[in-house]
Write a structure and sequence with these properties.
7 helices; six-stranded mixed sheet; alpha/beta; four-stranded antiparallel sheet; 229 residues
Length: 229
């Protein structure tokens, strides 16, 4: 794997037991993500898109195959090592922001840095910088309940980016937003991708998002189909 390759998934398979039946969700799937690349993954509900994201981010283990992120295989890492590698190299943005309600925007964004053993002063400085970058420098001390839906999602994006990861995995990041806010959020993501050279993998049902990625793949019957646009 070259230094410019952020992620390689090889022969990835995942199945679940449903009653007495084995339900295959992913079947020998291969995927490669280069540094700074923006990839959209589309597919019908229940096709395994979220399962795939969880495997790529090392949150779950495949039944067969492997995932390497920045030249480390998730299967080679113990739980503590895996958490540390994920903290350093992978950010997550979900449809729901998953912010800690009792924490301010600044505290929510600082948390990954503090977990990664940054000093409080350095974590605060870096969190303020990224919150300013997403247009929330004036909302540092506000709790999630005091923010709009779009602002909460911007905080979630800032939290995913604050460690300057190699890869950000997103699961329907604009799914809970109105069309105008969703478009603004997409503009922000594209701007950050270009400025920071961080790879994005976005699961989405929104064709507007897919159209602005570098490439789009469709998950069908457990395998990925490349779409030529």
């Amino acid at each position: 794997m070259t230094i410019d390759t952020v992620l390689v998934a090889s022969g990835l398979s995942r199945y679940y037991q449903q009653g007495g039946t084995e339900l295959m969700v992913l079947q020998g799937l291969d995927l490669r993500i280069e540094r700074g690349e923006k990839l959209a993954i589309i597919g019908v509900s229940g096709s395994g898109k979220t399962t795939l994201l969880n495997l790529l981010g090392g949150l779950d283990d495949p039944d067969a195959g492997s995932v390497r992120v920045c030249d480390r295989d998730w299967s080679e890492l113990g739980a503590t090592q895996r958490a540390a590698w994920r903290n350093q190299h992978v950010g997550f943005v979900y449809q729901f922001h998953h912010l800690l309600g009792e924490f301010s925007a600044l505290e929510n964004v600082s948390l990954p840095l503090l977990i990664g053993q940054c000093s409080v002063a350095d974590a605060r400085r870096r969190a303020i910088a990224v919150l300013e970058r997403v247009g929330l420098g004036h909302r540092l001390d506000h709790q999630p309940s005091e923010l709009s839906g779009g602002e909460r999602q911007r905080v979630a994006i800032a939290r995913a980016l604050v460690t300057e990861p190699s890869l950000v995995l997103m699961d329907e990041p604009t799914g809970n937003l109105d069309p105008h806010t969703a478009e603004s959020m997409l503009d922000l993501l594209i701007e950050l991708n270009q400025a920071l050279d961080i790879s994005f993998v976005v699961v989405t049902h929104d064709p507007a998002i897919a159209a602005r990625m570098d490439r789009t793949v469709r998950l069908v019957d457990g395998v990925l189909e490349n779409l030529v646009v």
